[in-house]
Amino acid sequence: VPPGSILPWRFFSCKEGTKIPSKRKQNTSLTTSELLYRNLLKSEQEHWNDISARYKAVTKRIKEKLEELHDKYTFNSGSPGIRFGENVYFAEHSCVFLSKADDDEGNVDVLFSTEDLGFSDTFIQRIRISPDQKYMAISLKSDNSEEATCVIVKLGRFPVMEKVIPSVFSFEWATNDVLYYTSQKNLKCQNVFVTTFTNQKHTKLVYTEQDARFFVDIYCTKDRRFLTINSNSKTTSEVWLVDCRQPFKLPALVQARTKGVIYHIEHRNDELYILTTYGEPAEYKLMKAPVASSGIENWQLVYALEEKMKLVDLEVFSDHCVMFLKNAGHLYLHVISLVSRSVQSVKLPAWACEFELESHPEHTTSTCYFQLTSPVHPPKLYAYSFKENNLIEQAVQEVPIITNCHTTRLLAKSKDETSVPITVFHKMSSKELHRKPLLVHVYGAYGIDLNMSFKEEKLMLIEEGWILAYCHVRGGGELGLSWHKDGCQHNKLKGLHDLKACIMLLHKLGFSQPKYTALAAASAGGVLAGALCNTDPDLLRAVVLQAPFVDVLNTMMKTHLPLTVEEQEEWGNPSADEKSMKYMKSYCPYQNIKPQCYPSVFITAYENDQRIPLTGVLRYVQKLRKAALDHARSTSTKGNWIPNIILDIRATGSHCDSSWEESLNEV
């Protein structure tokens, strides 16, 4: 079977109103290993309950402060909305709102809440409006699952719920009453369906992906001319086009997948604008080709990025293309005229670290809206005017501006002399910085940037005198695709060397010292954080890990897990390659635990995490505690201490997005 194949309509159909299947009755007999696992889980939960009781007073104070900051900044800053002419739709606090774009008084109408639809304890993840604004599709997610439910609502004076589709990842309207969506199962998206809301309702399977390394999603071009079915692995992609004027016509292939070539599609005036890694250097560049002859042999270069420039996002409008870029931590806009081919480069304010873009901005607009934010700066609205060729700061929001925080950008020399960017925040008035506590952040995987959007807890730490540092190590995407490539598979240790160099430079420059330094990481960031604990524990006093990937080798050897095959392009394949297995073993946090003086470690894990198996986290904690205890017993050094190693296993919550209330409890 070919990797991606289009299925004729007759191959599949399902009845309307399909209900979520109930889970089969589980076998009640328990194996010895399951009993051991349950006993260990119970023991850890009792240990956590005992320890957390000691922190009730400080927890109460922090929670009150965070709620105060949340109320002060979050709602006022607004969430990026969806514009349709004068209408702006947006979601907040499990409600969907409608406002007018030119309303300076901030009047909003509440269209409906998730509770109105019969879904309590869920939050809104995504909104899509039909072109005639008669229907709205929204995805609702609970804290306990990565799978979302898509609900289609007929808008009006009294909104009506038309359809509920379980386990949906992405969805887009092809026409006023035709919706395409992808289904999600075991963390994979490999099927695309179309469903109609005409008099003759039907649902059919359109596309299926056969290769387990590929993940399928759907996107609508800005001019609403095409839907794109995007099938992507970590290194390769393939796109099919659905013509929105003929939504039931079989999708057309743009370019068959070519190993190592990633591409994404936009459309303007019967031409495809192709954002791709094709050609040298293997960084993103903008190319174009006619819709009628879209093969790679017809791709023509429109614009190539400079070296070390990271493309964050791209928006194509009727006569302009806007590139949102990062370079060494600074944010830029490149505005390309698709008529004259002129390029306007705009450097954005120095404090800004992250873009937040509008969902589906109007294609014909003369203004591009976006928000700028940082870990300690709430989102602030900006606009770029194509008519005036200038940047406009929107003053409509009454959001207090953070003025007492200093932003510094540094470069650390890694073991191989590579310069590694660091972004540092601290209070303007802080004196004796070497005595202040420092919280270091790291990720370094999948070509993904460190999350530097606004978080109430980061601002709280700044106000209480902390220093925050973000280490943009290799394996992440901060300096483009080559930065990721230089830190994955057989280059993973480079990310570890980068992290060590960053922390040593911070201390050398007087930003705190080891006994006041903590390291925070989540998910795959746990690999580098856990590895540093093994190689250089004396650099840190404490480590905070959220759903950490710490048992790399054992996990990657288990090919039956849902993500193992897909992840091999990032970590390697130890089952088939002995060299890969030895290299993975050399840095795997679990494999390299040894008796020594470790920093204190706090881990949050989730009982039902599909991405990071809890068994691996439990094994890691047990082995780490034993190593720390063995070291303490074998040494009689005066002042010797045993680190706190705490595991908080949460019955609710999941690896990815969670509601504000759930994340507040974790924080």
From TrEMBL:
One of its GO terms (cellular component) is Golgi apparatus. GO terms for biological process: proteolysis. It comes from the Eukaryota. Residues 41-390 form the Peptidase S9A N-terminal domain. It is an enzyme of class 3 (hydrolase). This is Prolyl endopeptidase. The keyword Hydrolase applies. Gene3D superfamilies: alpha/beta hydrolase (3.40.50.1820), Prolyl oligopeptidase, N-terminal domain (2.130.10.120). It comes from Buceros rhinoceros silvestris. One of its GO terms (molecular function) is serine-type endopeptidase activity. Belongs to the peptidase S9A family.
